[in-house]
Design brief:
mainly alpha, 4 domains, disordered N terminus, 62% helix, globular, 717 residues, 30 helices
Length: 717
């Protein structure tokens, strides 16, 4: 194929791509002006169908993917990588598509204030939801007027948006159409410039096609034209975008939100009655608000200033008492989670306004709880698993509760708050023990339950152990350990997963550690599963696939928080006894925690800051351990293979010379700052040997001066 033929095909493929991405905004506006709601609905439905699963990603990310492909081609030598004009065309296409989407958002926000019919309103909101995924299209959606309009449709407020004219305005729509025409002209000028650059290389056998292309471009206006933006006052030229290298987000196919795809089963063409139609449009408006709040800091601030959280709380409170919660509730909860996670002052406000009580009631409603006692829920093993919809609402509730209670862990709750938290913990026990329809949802539900339990006051967690024993219950010293066993199993699964290990393991490790400090029976039960009596000491403690081995391996992990959490749990299981801790882990693995707590020298059996009251029971050794005890290397924690004496056969003079040579080598390494000899001070903390020696000399000098002073006083007497 000739180069001119390739250039021609590239040009036409570019025009086809542009047309396929264009929104017929002019047609939509004409239908609105003519009152043709059916025409508007048909065109918006086509847009929604085309881009229902499209999301927006940074152009920089696309460039990174392109670079990775280039490197892959070069590495595999599959073919020579040649950059094509289509890359530049993509940027042109993105710029034009961005302008169209911006203006479409402006038009639709204006349109939905005019009181459109229910079904058309729902279609328009779906279009706005797709547009709200793009940060660069958020302008018309984050004004106070837009937020109040969406909030009113969602049922969060009854306030009318009065800061903008809501009446149809022909001049407004005409101005947008004119600006789009100008943008189209400028777009054609860009194509003409490309055509002139390619003209010299064209083959003469395509003269008619070339003339047709030139005649189309010749109608273009030669002036540099700007495009309208959503604010009206700020106008960005397409040519400026090209020259300045402005990167827009790229519209690409994406994956639907997992929860949304599972919950939403309705189709666009489904016939609905008036009530369900109102619920559907409330849901769509709520989805738009979720996207806008998530993507825009300004929208988060205005959400707070407009006090929309109050309306959201009222909606949730009123829906708790409904026998069958609507499908909108999930998105109400999602929006509440987003706003409390992104705006700390709203999290505090929700807590102060009784958010814990409201959300606890919502959690109780989702789980359909039956109470056996004040802090005991009925747990029926034959009950069906938690439904798909209920499990997703429960997860959102747990996330919100964590946002508003995470600071209460170390606080002393009042009597009323303690009763409320114990009521909540009883529900959380149910969340731990019950299963969901999907195993992934069960794991996620347990994970968020653990997060919330670790945030609540420790003294309120005794509810987990207050359940009477059943015939098949796990127990320790007469205390029900079913919940503790579930937590142990959950920790083991997280240890095996290996994915996002810090985020997944830190909460459960902290929760188990604090529970072991607070409850003697819990510590006994967990220690029996994690630190059984030592028998085989031929391997290092960190070797193997047991829970103990995995935890000890984490004690030398690169992440400081994670290794301290793992070490703390084992240290508490050893009743914070240094000797016992070293016995089970080896001094090399234990050194990090001991150094942090000033216990490297072995002084003191426990940290002074510990409030735990441990029993005086001893750590009985097995027969196998007692036989091998004298041969265990305390650093590695195992019996090492016997090695021959390296000084065997050497005379005393040769041994002395070897010792002097080693001392000289250590001194040289120390002078060159390659190594720094360390010692342990009186508090058990590692310090440089030089500093240790200076402190020792200072103390000796002080002692001598005190002795001299006492002698002088004795002479005077």
């Amino acid at each position: 194929m000739s180069s001119s033929h390739s250039s021609y095909l590239r040009g036409h493929s570019r025009h086809f791509a542009r047309r396929s991405m264009d929104v017929d905004l002019e047609g939509i506006i004409q239908c609105i002006k003519q009152g043709d709601e059916n025409g508007v609905q048909i065109q918006l439905q086509e847009f929604n169908k085309e881009y229902a699963q499209c999301f927006f990603f940074d152009a920089e990310e696309r460039d990174r993917r392109k670079q990775r492909k280039l490197e892959e081609f070069r590495k595999n030598k599959v073919r020579e990588y040649a950059d094509s004009d289509s890359d530049c065309d993509e940027y042109d296409q993105e710029d034009r598509g961005l302008i169209l989407r911006q203006n479409l958002a402006v038009v639709l926000m204006r349109f939905i204030r005019t009181g459109v019919k229910c079904r058309l309103l729902r279609v328009s909101l779906r279009t706005l939801r797709i547009l709200s995924r793009d940060n660069k299209v958020l302008g018309p959606l984050v004004t106070d007027s837009a937020l109040l309009t969406l909030a009113k449709i969602a049922g969060l407020t009854t306030s009318d948006a009065t800061d903008e004219n809501s009446d149809p305005d022909s001049d407004f729509y005409d101005n947008i159409i004119a600006s789009l025409a100008e943008a189209k002209v400028l777009h054609c000028r860009s194509d003409e410039d490309e055509g002139d650059a390619e003209a010299n290389g064209r083959n003469e056998e395509y003269p008619v096609l070339d003339e047709d292309t030139k005649s189309d471009i010749s109608n273009a206006n030669s002036g540099e034209l700007d495009s309208i933006s959503w604010f009206g006052s700020h106008r960005t030229s397409i040519n400026e975008m090209h020259r300045g290298g402005v990167h827009h987000k790229v519209l690409e196919r994406g994956r639907k939100d997992r929860r949304e795809s599972k919950i939403d089963g309705e189709e666009e063409d489904e016939e609905e009655d008036e009530e369900s139609g109102e619920e559907a449009q409330r849901k769509e408006a709520m989805k738009v608000l979720c996207n806008v709040v998530y993507n825009s800091t300004w929208a988060q601030e205005r959400f707070s200033a407009l006090r929309l959280l109050c309306g959201l709380t009222e909606r949730l409170s009123s829906s708790v008492n409904c026998s069958s919660p609507s499908s909108v509730q999930f998105y109400e909860l999602r929006l509440m989670f987003l706003i409390t996670a992104l705006r700390p002052e709203l999290s505090t406000q929700l807590q102060q306004e009784g958010g814990v009580s409201i959300l606890t009631a919502a959690l109780e409603s989702c789980l359909e709880v039956q109470w056996k006692d004040q802090y005991e829920c009925v747990l029926n093993p034959a009950a069906p698993p938690i439904s798909l919809e209920a499990s997703q609402r429960v997860i959102e509730i747990l996330k919100i509760l964590f946002n508003i209670t995470y600071s209460t862990h170390r606080q002393e709750p009042s009597e009323d708050d303690a009763a409320l938290y114990r009521h909540l913990v009883a529900l959380l026990r149910l969340c731990l023990m019950r299963k969901c329809v999907l195993s992934d949802d069960t794991d996620e539900l347990q994970g968020h339950t653990v997060n919330l339990l670790s945030a609540l006051p420790l003294q309120c967690l005794d509810v987990l152990l207050m359940v009477p024993l059943e015939p098949d219950s796990k127990q320790c010293q007469g205390v029900n350990m079913d919940c503790v066993h579930t937590l142990l199993t959950f920790m083991e699964k997280r240890l095996e997963s290996g994915d996002k290990i810090k985020e997944k393991l830190t909460p459960i490790l902290n929760l188990l550690t604090e529970s072991c400090r607070a409850h003697r029976e819990t510590r006994h039960y967990i220690r029996k599963h994690i630190l059984p009596p030592l028998r085989d000491v031929s391997h290092r403690p960190e070797e193997g696939s047991t829970v103990k081995s995995r935890l000890i391996r984490l004690m030398t992990h690169l992440d400081t928080d994670l290794k301290h959490c793992a070490a703390d749990l084992i240290f508490v299981l050893c009743k914070e006894n240094v000797g016992r801790f070293v016995k089970y882990t080896g001094y090399g693995n234990a050194a990090g925690l001991l150094a942090t707590r000033g216990l490297l020298g072995g002084q003191g059996s426990r940290t002074s800051s510990s409030d735990a009251q441990y029993s005086s029971d001893s750590d009985s050794d097995t027969e196998e351990y007692r036989e091998a005890k004298d041969r265990i290397n305390p650093v590695t924690g195992r019996v090492e293979a016997e090695h021959s004496d390296p000084m065997e056969g050497m005379t005393e003079e040769e041994k002395e010379e070897e010792a002097k040579r080693l001392i000289m080598l250590f001194n040289k390494l120390s002078r060159d700052s390659i190594i720094q000899p360390m010692g342990v001070d009186s508090e058990g903390k590692p310090v440089p040997m030089l500093g240790l020696r200076e402190n020792s000399l200072t103390e000796e000098g002080r002692s001598e001066s005190e002795d001299d002073g006492e002698a002088e006083e004795g002479g005077k007497n």
